[in-house]
């Protein structure tokens, strides 16, 4: 894919979602880390509903380990995989207190060592909490990147991230991450994407095929 084509894609999505941002509610790096951990296989909307009460009850790592695992599980039970996530949260908080004086570390290699924190979560925290350019690849970013040819269909999540890092200027990594999420969440959805009104349809082989199939079905009827 040429640099000109990549630029066109980035500018088009930027025009659609100029104010794209992290939709997880948080007021500090610690809350953001907890929120992103909870967001795995769960919508941001649900996470925000749960953390509205959670962050009032728990302000720091000490608070999360002061209660029983069962109590924390009940506090986040509306979240998918809540039992495993509650266990990870308490383990993460213990490690923060043991190694980092209760603070979220600022280095990527330290973040990914925290229980429940993978590469995607670490990238989100680095970019949104510490203003370090990063591209976190979630399901939306992966789907959009592959549909638009920014990555190949069989690429792993890590390969998608690496290709985006090469094609997108470093100073645009964080904003591009947010815009790709918005584009995937509100327009290029997994089911029923807005292909018929998509300004990037000519870049999307899957979308053109989908529209062609719809037209064919209508003609048969």
Automatic annotation (TrEMBL):
HAMAP family: Nth (MF_00942). Coiled coil: none annotated. This is Endonuclease III. It holds the Pfam family HhH-GPD. Residues 38-186 form the HhH-GPD domain. Signal peptide: none annotated. InterPro entries: DNA_glycosylase, Endonuclease-III-like_CS2, Endonuclease3_FeS-loop_motif, Endouclease-III_FeS-bd_BS, HhH-GPD_domain, HhH_base_excis_C, HhH_motif, Nth. It comes from Paenibacillus oceani. The lineage of its organism: Bacteria, Bacillati, Bacillota, Bacilli, Bacillales. It catalyses: 2'-deoxyribonucleotide-(2'-deoxyribose 5'-phosphate)-2'-deoxyribonucleotide-DNA = a 3'-end 2'-deoxyribonucleotide-(2,3-dehydro-2,3-deoxyribose 5'-phosphate)-DNA + a 5'-end 5'-phospho-2'-deoxyribonucleoside-DNA + H(+). Belongs to the Nth/MutY family. One of its GO terms (biological process) is base-excision repair, AP site formation. DNA repair enzyme that has both DNA N-glycosylase activity and AP-lyase activity. The DNA N-glycosylase activity releases various damaged pyrimidines from DNA by cleaving the N-glycosidic bond, leaving an AP (apurinic/apyrimidinic) site. The AP-lyase activity cleaves the phosphodiester bond 3' to the AP site by a beta-elimination, leaving a 3'-terminal unsaturated sugar and a product with a terminal 5'-phosphate. Its EC number is 4.2.99.18. Keywords: 4Fe-4S, DNA damage, DNA repair, DNA-binding, Endonuclease, Glycosidase, Hydrolase, Iron, Iron-sulfur, Lyase, Metal-binding, Nuclease. GO terms for molecular function: 4 iron, 4 sulfur cluster binding; class I DNA-(apurinic or apyrimidinic site) endonuclease activity; DNA binding; DNA N-glycosylase activity; metal ion binding. [4Fe-4S] cluster binds at residues 188, 195, 198, 204. PROSITE patterns: ENDONUCLEASE_III_1, ENDONUCLEASE_III_2. Its cofactor is [4Fe-4S] cluster. Binds 1 [4Fe-4S] cluster. It comes from the Bacteria.
């Amino acid at each position: 894919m040429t640099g000109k084509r990549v630029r066109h894609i980035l500018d088009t999505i930027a025009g659609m979602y100029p104010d794209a941002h992290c939709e997880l509610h948080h007021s500090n790096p610690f809350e953001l880390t907890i929120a992103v951990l909870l967001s795995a296989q769960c919508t941001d909307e649900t996470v925000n509903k749960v953390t509205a009460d959670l962050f009032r009850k728990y302000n720091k790592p000490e608070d999360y380990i002061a209660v029983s695992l069962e109590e924390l599980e009940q506090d986040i039970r509306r979240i998918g995989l809540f039992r495993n996530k509650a266990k990870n949260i308490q383990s993460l908080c213990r490690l923060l207190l043991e190694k980092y004086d209760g603070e979220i570390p600022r280095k990527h290699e330290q973040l990914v060592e925290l229980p429940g924190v993978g590469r995607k979560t670490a990238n989100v925290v680095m970019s949104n909490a510490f203003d370090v350019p990063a591209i976190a690849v979630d399901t939306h970013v992966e789907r959009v990147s592959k549909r638009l040819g920014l990555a190949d269909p069989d690429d792993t999540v890590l390969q998608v991230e690496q290709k985006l890092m090469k094609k997108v200027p470093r100073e645009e990594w964080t904003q591009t991450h947010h815009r790709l999420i918005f584009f995937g969440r509100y327009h290029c959805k997994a089911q029923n994407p807005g292909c018929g009104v998509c300004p990037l349809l000519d870049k999307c082989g899957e979308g053109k095929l989908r529209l062609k199939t719809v037209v064919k079905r209508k003609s048969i009827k």
